[in-house]
Amino acid sequence: MFTRVNNTGQLRKELVELFEKPKGSYCGQQLGLFVRAIRIPEFASEQSMVKSLNLEDVSEFERYVVMSQAKALTDFHVDFGDKSSQPRRTSGSMRDTKSVSDTWFGTMDGIIVKKITMTAGNTFFMPGGWIHAVYTHEDSIAVSGNFFHAGCISRQLRAFRAEVNVEANSDYRVPEVIPIHFAYMTQKLLKVVEEKRHQEER
């Protein structure tokens, strides 16, 4: 489970309690804190739909510090809103192992799992729509963020429809999906189409 925390006092208390817990076989807890001072990587800013638009009052998902204790394990999932992500490991490591893969899938046929190990200093870009799970090998801290990718519009809208159809909890949805995509269409895509049409008419 990923818990977003906005109160730093609450975070410190939960963080101490979390990391002082005796380590079991597996746990499923991560804590995330929004931090405005985080610098977003250039490639993420360039591809972010929101960064290129004139929008107000848009939820902030691009600057998070994520803390995970050793043996934390997530379910397989797609990030909410089908957003792309760009985690940067600052300490610790996250990876999967054969035993963890066996726990997830057992002997199911046709399932291929690729392993990516992130260690301190690494940055990883994951396009929207990638089904993934995370196993935290040791107590870890990462700077991360999610953003709507200009190259993943169709997947993002399909994910939105799926979230509506299954009545996903509002805590795990982006409230401005439609306004953001509509603004991108009117402010960016229509201009590109119009320019292309004028070029073809010459």
UniProtKB/TrEMBL annotation:
Domain JmjC: 1-164
InterPro entries recorded: JHDM1_Histone_Demethylase (IPR050690), JmjC_dom (IPR003347)
Entry keywords, A to Z: Iron, Metal-binding, Oxidoreductase, Transcription, Transcription regulation
GO molecular function ontology, one term from the record: oxidoreductase activity
Transmembrane parts of this sequence: none
Source domain of life: Eukaryota
Name recorded for this polypeptide: JmjC domain-containing protein
